[in-house]
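Below is how a single chain appears once it has passed through the pipeline. First comes the sequence as given, then the structure the pipeline wrote out for it. We keep one example in the README because the format questions we get most often are answered faster by looking than by reading.
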Amino acid sequence: MSTTLAEHSIGPAPAGPRTVLAASLIGTTVEWYDFFLYATAAGLVFPALFFPVGDEVAGTLLAFGTFAVGFVARPIGGVIFGHIGDRLGRKRTLVATMVMMGVATALIGLLPSYASIGVAAPLLLVLLRVLQGIAVGGEWGGAVLLAVENAPPRRRGLYGSVPQIGLGLGLALGTGVFALLGQVLDPETFLSIGWRIAFLLSVVLVGVGLVVRLKVLETPEFRALHSSGATASVPIVEVFRARAHRRGVGTGMLARWAEGAAFNTWGVFIITYATTTVEMDKTTILLAVTGGALLMAVLTPVAGRLADRYGRRRIFGIGAAGFGLTVVPSFLAVQSGIPWLAATAIVAQLGVFYAAMTGTESALFAELFDTGVRYTGMSLVFQGSGIWASGLTPVFLTGLLAFGAGDPWWAAGYLVLTAVISLVAVIVMPRFIGWRPEWARTDPW
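Resulting structure:
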C-alpha cells in the first residue's frame, strides 16, 4: 500500500531549509562535475590517449561510445539505489553514491594511457565509466527528493529546481577547469598531465559534499512512510503494477527526450563539432559552454518558481518548444565560425531553453509517483530515458554529421523530432498522482 503526500507537515523538519537545499545542491554539483568532466575529456583528450585508431571520426565515436556506457549504467544505479531509497531511506543512498562517484573519477585521472598498458587502458576506462553511471543513477532521485519532500506544498517546483542547479554548476566547473588548464599549459603538457588534474580535483569536492550531506537527516515524508510500515517490498514491481505509474514512466521518459538531447548537444557534442568540423578555437567554445551553464544555473530556479505558478507541464513544454524551434538557427550560428554568434547560440540553448526544462522536471516527475515508489519511479524515468535521450545523443549526432558529409541538417532534424515527441508526451502526461493539493487541481497544462 502506497502513501500519498500529506498536505500538512509531518513532524518537525530534520534540518532547516537552507541546510537541506545546500546538501542537495552541493551533492549534485559534485556528481555532475565528475560525470560531465568525462564528457569534455571524451571530446578533447580520450580519442588520442585511449582510442588511437588512426581515424579521427572513429576515435571520437569510440570515445563518445564509452561516454554513452555511463548512461546505460545509470538505470542500473537507479534501480539499485531506488530500491534502497524507497525501502531504507533517501539519505543512505546519497552518501554511498557520492563516495562511489569520487573514487571512480579520481581513478580515471590516474589511469595509464593506451601507449602505456595497451588495450587494458580503454577497458579500465569503460569499467570506471560504468561505476560513474551507477553512482549518478542512484544520486539524482535521492538529491531531488531530499529537496522536494522537504518543500512547502506551493514551493515544490522551486525546491525541486535547486538540485538541478548543480547540473549547470557541475558543467561550468568541468568545462571551466579544462579551459583554464588549456590556457596555462601548453598542448603537450595538457594532454599528458593537465587533464588529469581536473579529475583528481574530485577528491576535494567529494570531501566538501560529504561534510554537508552528513548533517542532513531523513526526509519527513519517508520517515512518516517508514514509521507506518507502508514501505514497498519491491518498489520496482509496485511501479509497474499500477496503471497510473506505468503511464507515468512511459510519458515521463518520452517527455525527457528533448531535455536530454538538448543538454548533450549544446554541452557535449558542440565542443567536438565546433573545434573539429568548424575549426573554432577550443577555449572560445569551452568558455561559451561555461557561460551557458552559469546562465542555466541562474535561470533554473526561475523556471521552478514559474512552474509553481503556471504549471509544471506548461513551463517544461515551453522549454521543449523553444529548443526545437531554434535548433536550425543555432547550428547555423555555430557553422558560421563567428565566435560571438556561436557563443550566443550556445548560451541561449543551455541558459534559457534547457533551463526551462531542467528547472521544472524534478517536481514534474516526482508528481507522477506515490511516496512509496517515488525514488524508483523517478529514477526509471530520468535514468532509463538517459540511455537514448542523453548518452547516445553525441553518437547519433556524430553519425548523422558524417552521413551528411559535414552538414548538420540531418542532426538538426533529429533534434527537432525529439522536441516534438517531448511536447506531445508532456501534454498527455498524467498529473499529480501522489501530490494533489487543492490549489493545483485546476492546473493548466
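Residues 328 and 412 are 6 Å apart (CA to CA).

See the next section for the split statistics.
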